[in-house]
Amino acid sequence: MIIEWHTHVYPPEEAAADSRAWEGKNLGPAWDGRCPMTIDNVMDAHRRSGVALSVISNAAHYIRYKSDADELKAVQRWSDYAAELQAKHAGEVLGFATILPAAGPAMVKEAERAIRQLGLRGFFIHSNHKGIYPDNDAARPFWELAEDLDVPVFIHPPHAGIGEEFVGEYRLASSIGRPADLCLAISRLIVRGILEDFPRLKLVGSHGGGGICEVIGRMNYAYELQDEAYFLGSYAPMKIKHEPGYYLKKMYFDSVTYHLPAARMVLDTVGPDHFIYGSDAPPLTVLKPRAIQMVKEMHLPQDQEEKVFWRNAAKLLKLSEAELAKLHAKQSEPA
Ligand SMILES: [Zn+2]
User: Fold this and answer.
1) How far is the CA of 282 from the centre of ligand 1 (A)?
2) Domains (range + CATH), the chain
3) How far apart are CA 49 and CA 43, in angstroms?
4) How far is the CA of 178 from the centre of ligand 1 (A)?
């Protein structure tokens, strides 16, 4: 059985919008009337690949181009639409609310509404929003809420972040800029003590963590050496009680790397209980079979492969026994 952790949908009016017009900049993705992030594309790829359940989230690349006053409306609109899709495709689709963690009390209230009232199953946050990273003190009420609600928080890059002035060519914003921003955001959540202060958080990194599992050794020695590495700069104020790798292992990561050695490194770093299959399809709709194949090519023992393909996701999503039984029954029906 497969649970798909990573697919994106836009509300129809955002899918129809031409991002080239935003603030006169040509930074946003230009859909030219063909935005791939639609529920129809999700369901089509889902059925063709034999997926049992797809989690839909909204990467909301458009949100950085909204005025502060319009952000909340855009967030509410997606939550309502995600709940609508969850009801329409009951048993096949679960939705995450897209939340801006540092946007103040009204946003935190909206986050609570999305879970408690609308029944969405988790939060999607950007690795940074308008230059603010989610370790910002303004985001602490959000982290408190996420821990209280006990739902997963899926951290994912926005359209562009760190170094975006250098990634405008050759699709580097997607291939390099976004993972780099995510890696930075996760490292900041660790050293700034968010995972220390909110130990029950279920934080899930997209794209295998954007390289954080490769550089974690450097983070560890930067912490461990303290005065011996004075020339690397200050480590104050100290916010953590363990080396960064300790907190990294509390996190979960999806498999969206499209590179087998990278996926193996993530799994080796955090273990099979914290590694989750995902494809990022749509928008990368044609790549979904490749994403599934890559996990198969990891040649994991069966119990581990099951964890990666669905058991870990099922646990994070808190699927009930009844929900799981339905998914299993549906999988065994002839197509
Ligand atoms: Zn994505």
Assistant:
1) 8
2) 3-332 (3.20.20.140)
3) 10
4) 10
